[in-house]
Automatic annotation (TrEMBL):
Name of this protein: DUF2460 domain-containing protein
Pfam family, one: DUF2460
Organism of provenance: Chelativorans petroleitrophicus
InterPro entries noted in UniProt: DUF2460 (IPR011740)
Record domain DUF2460: where: 5-211
Taxonomic superkingdom: Bacteria
Length: 212
């Protein structure tokens, strides 16, 4: 990832944003009338428009200041997805057994956070690289581990890193619960706003795109 500022886009504005995951698929219509479909990318990518979350001129100024501090699209930052921000459903509280992130082999100490969508062979595992500080709970073989004593979180990758004495043994499942942000950048290098238009009810466009 290029330059990343470990700061969060204004929460009050992000909760009014619109957007979600985007897939890139190629669909070819064959002469037989059937379709041939291919996935162009293995992962989905999220796009948002934060403009719908701007409720006042104060909000607009806050976004403009944030935009300038990030140098437009140059630096990525944290964004709280209003629809998908936990290891569980939005209305639930994260628990120790929300997501299984691996099985111990007696030597492996680093486990990447993931969130699984769907079940069985069609399930999609989404990498989570920006967990919220203090929100990651970890269990090994059903027993909760202690942050700072048994494990830490890599600030650059979001991985769970076990201390040597707490390395998961062979066949021990590693499970977690957490909250997370999405790494994004501005998908534009110009923010255009008009006070007259804003007061008339016109919403400015503030496009954001996930950084993979």
């Amino acid at each position: 990832m290029n330059s990343f500022h470990d700061v969060r886009f204004p929460l009050s504005i992000s909760f009014g944003a619109t957007g979600g995951p985007e897939r890139r698929n190629e669909i070819v219509l064959l002469t037989s009338g059937r379709e041939k479909r291919n996935a162009r990318t293995a992962r989905s990518r999220r796009r948002y428009d934060a403009g719908t979350g701007v409720r006042s001129l104060e909000d607009l100024y806050e976004v403009l200041a944030f935009f300038e501090a990030r140098r437009g699209s140059l630096h990525a930052f944290r964004f709280r997805d209003p629809f998908d921000m936990k290891s569980c459903a939005p209305h639930e509280t994260p628990g120790l057994f929300d997501q299984q992130i691996g099985v111990g082999d007696g030597q492996r100490r680093r486990f990447a956070l993931v969130k699984t969508y769907g079940e069985g062979p069609d399930a999609y595992q989404r990498p989570i690289t920006r967990p919220v500080a203090g929100s990651v709970f970890v269990a090994v073989a059903g027993v909760q581990k202690t942050f700072g004593t048994d494990y830490s979180i890599d600030p650059d990758t979001g991985e769970v890193v076990f201390e040597p004495h707490a390395t998961p043994a062979i066949d021990e499942a590693v499970t977690t619960g957490f909250e997370f942000d999405v790494p994004v950048r501005f998908d534009t290098d110009q923010l255009s706003a008009s006070i007259t238009a804003f007061k008339a009810g016109q919403i400015p466009s503030i496009p954001l795109v996930e950084v993979l």
